[in-house]
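Protein modeling request. Please complete all fields; requests missing the sequence field cannot be processed.
Requester role: graduate student
Desired output: 3D structure, token encoding
Chains: 1
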Amino acid sequence: MRRVHTMKLLPLVLALSFSPAGVASEADHREFEATLHAPYTALASAQEGRTFALAFSYPFVQEAHDIVWRLELLDPAQRVIERWQGLDRLSGKPVEVKVRWRGRAADPALRDGLYQVRMVAVAREAGASGAQRLSEAETDGLLEADGSGHRVEQAWDIAVGTPDSVPMPAFAPLATGTNGGKAAVARPDTGAAPGTVSPASAPATASLPYTVYYANLHSQTNHSDGGGALASCTGSQSPQAGAFGPADAFAYAKNKGLDILMASEHNHMYDGSAGTDTSASAATAKALYQSGLTAAANFNAANPNFLAVYGLEWGVISNGGHLNILNSPELLEWEYNASNQLLGDTYTAKNDYAALYTLMKTRGWVGQFNHPDSTGQFLVNGVPLGYTADGDQAMVLCEVMNTSAFSTNTTETETGRSTFESACNKALEAGFHVAFSTNQDNHCANWGAAYTNRTGVLIPTGTPLTNASFIAALQARRVFATMDKTSQLVLTANGRVMGERFTNSGPLTLTANFANTSGKTVSSVALFEGVPGRNGTVTQLSTSASTTITPEIGTYFYYAKITQSDGKILWSAPVWVTQSATAGDTVAPTVSASESGTSGTITLSASASDNVGVSRVEFYVDNVLKGSDASAPYAMTLDSTTLANGSHVLGAKAYDAAGNVGSAPSVNFSISNGTGGTGGTQLLLNPGFESGAVSWSGGSGIINNATTTPARSGSWKAKLAGTGATRTDNLYQQVAIPAGAASATLSFWLQVQSAETTTSTAYDTLKVQVRNSGGTILATPATYSNLNKASSYTQRSVDLSAYKGQTVQVFFTGSEDASLQTTFLVDDVALTVP
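Delivered output (834 residues):
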């Protein structure tokens, strides 16, 4: 049953300074801003309840405004189960509204899964009377009727309980950039010596021939209204008054592990003014822009593994919209001084986007829509996000999410962020061929450090990272947006890589290829479909990572969106497909498959041929996709412990560029993983964790390959607790113990590392439990604690013979109190029967 709450809350006033020393252009930042912070997970004691924070501001607006808002909670079936609404007066200072949801304390029947919190807010000029309570119908009417451009929509997923992980195709992480050095100067935020960043990963095998470079393509320095010292930065700086310039920004970003940073300076601030300084020197303004280009070139020459990009953030927010021009050697301007000299190199009329697009297309420049609004911005002939053919060639990116522009966070934990997916979808539906990006819009001196979000840029492996290769990748739209800097998402369509435009006939297979190097799994996948030029609505096509469809005749775009187990989201670039009625190549490839090995690392192989050419071969075990190979000889390896002992069926499919599919005859093979720790048949899958979190459930990141806490064997192990703060980690696998077994023995190797010094008190514990398939505790046969700390692994075992004939969860739960860490490392688990 849906609950509706009408609220007139006392807003919390946020202390945000707009003193003259910290003010940039009023026109540049006069925009209604509304953000929603929805914690992805709840505290253990909160019964899944949590507090949502709605923040509203309207910088530099002169009149009071009423904020009408609606907040809805949707269950996994997208049904609204709870709703809140309110009307609050905004008069100068930002306000924040806290909304508490009680979770299972109010509804014990809430099932586990991914829920969505969705906010819609509009700002309207305040009426003569004070804010009043509104009915549900009145709220909806005001929200839906607003066409002023002061409407904001935000939506975030939250996890209730433990949502199931989504099976994903096997995908080797692509190689990453080689920025592993130190910055040459001290960090501008503290003056401390720069630290190190992790070296790049090795090139992937059986993957795509690209290297991923992680970028922040939206930030400012003291060439416009950025570069504010962290100790005093509370907003935009006065133009050219910030403490740090482009060279500082590039060094800081490199030190923080980024591969690419763009200093995107506001084009109308090169006169040093928030408005127009009629006494400004045109020569000085143009020289400042050229000095930024020189700073980027010099930094690149000294740092070949990093790319410094210097360019423009063109336009204003009020009745306009910001866009980045990433490769302009010219300063574009619309302001003149008293001598009628243009304060730049090339004149561009303010807010004339059609003319700007034509100039960009003619010059070969590429652009990004920054924090776009779906109403009132990027007007062409009065149409928001209005399409032109020149604009379609020039605009390559759309910022789908960014973090708070005035954040001073340097630990990548900023909670203030906004999403713009609806506006980017509107651009795609209008006909723009844009890929999604996510950036930080840094105005303070924390370039790239506010949060973990990055824009991933795919450059062919072996090609140096240069401005030319970077721009070529953007023009090809080989880009993904990620909130997790250790994740990758590449959408393929019949083997074609995201960003491509091609003609297809027959079936179309869309595959979301995901990789994460820090143990994160996938909680949800959504494949979306739209029609360029339709100016309609993007729709969700599928919730599977691999989907095969046969589109109707016409042109479509498709993109993938993934939510990780920690709530962080990734967006792929679209692919654009023209479905043709022409049969063309209708000959399917021929393929046969084989398997070698019965334990350890086994090999799946295929022989495939086609009249034109094979684009890829997919391998299936028991009808489950295990991986693919795009080049002959077609093969992949698989850890046998991810499969149960006994007989299995190998299948293979071969694809050609036209979408024709050939299937191999089934091949039977057997797995015999041998003995576990105490002799007998091993019942657990992936017992040594060498396939990551496959077959195991529990919190994200528990199974990992971090070298700071080494595994007993191989590279992977499970790490529970170890933070020095109140925490509980769970890890389990469900298994059926045969009724006819003579006995059942659970064994595992355990190392306990602890900062506790007591020799008598167990402050932190690891409990080995047996639970039924519903999670109810049946027994706790063993408990270990900080008193068991040791410098090496010790094998432990417990008798589970009492559970023969039952399906149980082998359950590890590690708990830690508020101080002095204890780490429980578990590896090489075995549940064996004779």
